[in-house]
Input
Amino acid sequence: MSKSAENDHGGLAGMQTPPVVSRGAWEAARLELLVKEKAQVRARDALAAERRRMPWMAVEKPYVFEGPNGKVSLLDLFEGRRQLIIYRAFFEPGVFGWPDHGCRGCSLGADQVSHLSHLNQRDTTLAYASRAPQADIARLKARMEWEMPWYTITDSFDADFGVAEWHGHNVFIRDGERIFRTCLVNSRGDESMGTVWSYLDITPFGRQELWEDSPKGYPQGPTYKWWNWHDNYEVETAPNAKWAAVTDAGEAAFRKIAEQERKAT
Output
C-alpha cells in the first residue's frame, strides 16, 4: 500500500463537498468571496483604530513578580520599552498537565508566538505570566523551546486584571514610570494571537505605519520600510534603500491588483 493510500483515511466518500468547476467559474467564485474578505480586513482595521482610542486606566498598585533574577515590578516587565503585552498562561499546581506541561490551550498559543524581535522593534514587549515557580517555568521553556520572558505572579495581578480564572492578554503603556492599562483580549479573541500583526493591533500605538487611522501625534512611519530580518535590526537601524525600492514597487503592484479586482467585482 502506498504512503498516500495509507494516509487517505477513506477519502471524501460520504462528505457533502462543493462542486468541481472550470477555472473561469472558480475565479468568479473567488472574486465573489474576495469582496467579503476585503470587507472583513477593513472591519478589522477599523476595530484596531477604535481600540487605539479606548480610554486608559491608571495602574496604581505596585505589583511584584518573580523573574529569573529575582523580584521585579510591573514597570520592569516593559524592559525599557513603551508598550507591554502580558499573557496570563496557566502553568501551576491544579492545572491539567502539571508539572510536566502547561495548559494545552495556553501551550498551543505559546507555540504560535512569532519572533519577538519584530515586536521589540515597535517598542513593544511581550511577556507571559503564571503562578508556577521560576524553576518550573525555566524547565518548561527549555522543554518546549519557548523564548518569551515568563514571570511568576506573586500577588493579585491576575484577579485584578480579569485573568485569574481564564487566559487573556492585558496590554499596558507607560509614560515614564506611570503605567496605564489599555486593552484586554480574552476568550475566543485569544485564538488569533501570535503573529506580529495580531499583537500590534491590540497595542495603543498599533502597527505604527502611515496608512493607519491613529490619534494625532502617535508614532507612525512609512509602510513596510521598518521590516527587517530578525537578526539584523541592531545592525541596520535605518531603513535600507534597496528594501525601500522593493516595497515601493510592491505597493504599486498591490494598488494595481486592487484596482483590477475592484473593476472585476
About this structure: Residues 23-51 form the longest helix (29 residues). Residues 57-200 form a domain with the Glutaredoxin fold (CATH 3.40.30.10).
